[in-house]
# Entry
Amino acid sequence: MESLLIANRGEIAVRIIRTAKEMNIRTVAVYSELDRDALHVKLADEAWNIGPAPAAESYLDMERILAAARESGAEGIHPGYGFLAENGEFAQKVIDAGLVWVGPSPESMTTMGDKVAARRALAGTSVPLVPGTNDPLESADDLKALAEEFGFPIAIKASAGGGGKGLRVVHSIDELVEGYEGARREAQAYFGSSVVYVEKFLLEPRHIEAQILADDHGRIVFMGERDCSVQRRHQKLIEETPSPRLRARQRRALGKAAIAVAKACDYRGAGTVEFLLDKEGNFFFLEMNTRLQVEHTITEMVTGIDLVREQIFIAEGKPISFKEFETNGHAMEFRINAEDPSNGFLPAPGTVIEYREPTGLGVRVDSWIEPATTVSPYYDNLMGKLIVWAPTRKLAIARGIRCLEEFVVSGVKTTIPAHLVVLKHADFVKDKHHTKWLEEEVDLSEAGSEPGVPLPTDEERTQRSMTVEVGGRRFDVTFWAPPVRRAGGEAPRRKAPKLTRGTGPTSGGDGIITSPMQGTIVKVSVAAGDAVEAGDNICVLEAMKMENAIASPGAGEVIDLRVQPGDTVNIGDIIAIVK
# Structure
């Protein structure tokens, strides 16, 4: 394969482009109009505009991506992760177009991408499953019987989901209907399918995942595990390898189960089999991600093996390139997200003013951020990943602290302060954490960071036109110039908005409830004239792939309601007035 189109954006597109260039493969980037100045566009050999900012009209538009591949002469497509990476229909379209699909077969993706189908496929194997249903949930009425069978808490999960999306944990009968509706709504929004099922929710588990590689020559390799137990909103924040919790015997059993899962779906390529480890040391199959994982980097750090390179080899029909490998040392990954950890990890889109990455022995940063980069609410808020390696876990923690303290990001709130709190916490150092530990037992109230700045408006970019020649042919080109820089190269500073701390909405003190962030209203729970108590849900606001409940700060009557489902709101917009 001599040319590769990367059907993605952000840091994963940058990461794939870099490996492809090392393999002397011509790279083709695709971008939305919002990403016209993004780093992956600059690094690729060529780039193609595939539509407006909304993902549904660009990064999720199969036909536009295939058209870009056809017109650019790309021979293959790498989907990265997210967007269309686990879409079996897209994979089949790529193959039908005569292109190389850098991923597993559409059949494997369909089986493992549907969590209900995956449970059915593994029902006759030795792979341990979390107690749950192997059939879709038909209605909220079915939940009561299942709750009685499994006992509270139970997890309502999107069948087509992953990454914590379309997941609701229900602790009582009173939460059943809201949990069912919320899971279905989010599942439909993110995966195009509202099908959900139920599993027993394990208390205080560890999240352990196994990296596998499988080729067309009958070889499946277990490349070690990753511990992903530091989470918020059911989404990973810190990952490490090897897991400090597993013993050698458990590691062998985990690897054997992961290989059994790969065999059950005739898997090919790089994949990750996820498990939950309970307090007694028993592990249960959770799901299989039929793509490259965000945290694949730490496996690369301890093995020295480039997983994207192996993906490309396998897609070309070649065998896995190495015969044997050894793991060495300990690696950790810290997800640098545009979120406010002191305010319930509220999404914090904005424009980066200053950006400086740490360096040194055993340090890697995968990012797409530069000074003046805008982190938009249209997409996931992952700005980059800090990865550190050291001979021991203790030294890896020390190196992580040093690097996080060196990492400079201003203009946008980030998760860096939360990472520092975790690494210095005695529970994490002593390996006493679990998947709910960060949310339930760690005080992040003082984990503040640099105040954010407003997103740039369309008016801040100047539309300009010029005439260029390409191959002797003249073209009239329209482009949008970024804001004028100061002499020192820094973008003009804009006054930061004042945000109320806490996890609820901003309130003017007179019952006026305003939006704490930019986003889209996906559900309204009250009507004008309703009586509410303090903490009652007013609406649900979606921003940067997260749903955020907006609650009433006090008791009273909703005398004015100014939003409805589908409305877009900005920071400070009035949502309701309660008096």
The longest helix spans residues 248-264. The chain has 15 helices and 33 strands. Confidence is low (pLDDT under 50) at residues 484-503. The CA atoms of residues 145 and 499 lie 44 Å apart.
